[in-house]
Write a structure and sequence with these properties.
340 residues, alpha/beta, Nucleotidyltransferase, domain 5, 5-stranded mixed beta sheet, elongated
Length: 340
């Protein structure tokens, strides 16, 4: 019947999709036994298109919201319902998660991923291994704990390797390096970048796995030279560095697997853009109440200095009350150090 309706529409010069959607709407209103999913399949049209037009081809009241969701889904293909809902709210939409879920389901935009944890670290070496200091730490500020890890990235004709360092409090990437080698220089380059970009407060802890790149004398000596404490995961236990494992998964799904890098230079430029411009500056992070790491750090800095600012302003105001040299009193009544 739906196929016949399509042929009739073609013969009459009518948009056949609109005709099929209209017929589906009629069948739904009449309470037919066929489901919408079955009818749109028989008619050769999409279910999302039917919902956009609405039953009886009435305008869809969610059209603008669907458009906004589609744009975000194109920009952030790995966003699920919670993060996408927060992004909509940041863009001015008043919407709840249930409504977003319904539209994602109708438009077949639900994000489904297989979760897999792969252990790649070789800790069979004779270098000194340090205890896990990060395990019982409670994060209360930036530059309290740095987490380091490395992974491989496939190019068209070779593999290259990426080393990263994250601030555990803000999840911001503060150091990274990409190269063809897994030698110590790769992780050292990432560490040097982090040292250039951040302050080193007393008590800072650096955590990594037990890989030889992180246990090497050159690497640990550089940490010690800056007064940084060394922490390492338990043997063959990637959960001890789960935050970095999670970051690597995000990097693979949202950047690496969406591209086919020709060579190292192209990979380095693209990953630089993702880390510095997208991940740090734009991507919403669920552990940070759905704000990007850079914004989270800026907000934390403002909250941190507000009590000191308020205290200084209070002291300044009291000083003005005690020594009011604003013309209300004579010059002789002002202390000498306050006279103009």
């Amino acid at each position: 019947m739906l196929a016949a309706h399509r042929r009739t529409a073609d013969a009459a010069g009518i948009d056949w999709k609109s005709a099929v959607y209209g017929k589906v709407g009629e069948e739904v209103s009449a309470g037919r036994r066929l489901t919408i999913e079955r009818m749109v399949k028989l008619g050769g049209v999409s279910r999302s298109g039917f919902y956009r037009l609405g039953e009886d081809c009435k305008p869809d009241p969610d059209m603008d919201l669907r458009h906004a969701i589609q744009r975000i889904a194109l920009e952030w293909p790995s966003y699920g319902r919670p993060r996408l809902t927060r992004e909509l709210r940041r863009r001015g939409w008043v919407v709840n998660a249930k409504r977003v879920y319904r539209l994602l389901r109708e438009d077949n935009l639900l994000c489904v991923r297989k979760r897999r944890l792969v252990v790649t670290t070789n800790s069979n070496h004779g270098l000194h291994v340090y205890p896990n200091l990060a395990r019982d730490m409670v994060m209360i500020g930036m530059d309290q704990l740095w987490r380091a890890d490395l992974t491989y990235i496939r190019l068209r004709e070779e593999f290259v390797f990426l080393a990263v360092i994250l601030d555990a409090f803000s999840r911001r990437v503060i150091g990274w390096a990409l190269d063809r080698t897994l030698e110590d220089e790769l992780t050292l380059a990432a560490l040097r970048m982090a040292l250039r970009q951040r302050s080193i407060p007393p008590g800072l802890v650096h955590h990594s796995d037990r890989g030889s790149q992180y246990a090497s004398n050159d690497y640990t000596d550089l940490l010690k030279a800056h007064g940084i404490k060394i922490s390492m995961s338990r043997k063959a236990n990637p959960w001890d560095n789960a935050a970095c494992e999670s970051f690597m998964k995000t990097l693979k799904y949202e950047e690496v697997l969406r591209n086919e890098y020709r060579d190292l230079a192209e990979a380095r430029a693209s990953i630089h853009r993702f880390l510095e411009k997208v991940y740090n500056q734009k991507r919403l992070h669920s552990a940070l109440d759905y704000v990007p790491p850079a914004e989270f750090e800026a907000n934390w800095q403002r909250r941190r200095w507000r009590p000191l600012r308020d205290s200084l302003w209070h002291e300044f105001s009291r000083h003005g009350e005690i020594y009011p040299c604003d013309g209300a009193r004579s010059e002789q009544s002002c202390p000498a150090h306050r006279r103009g």
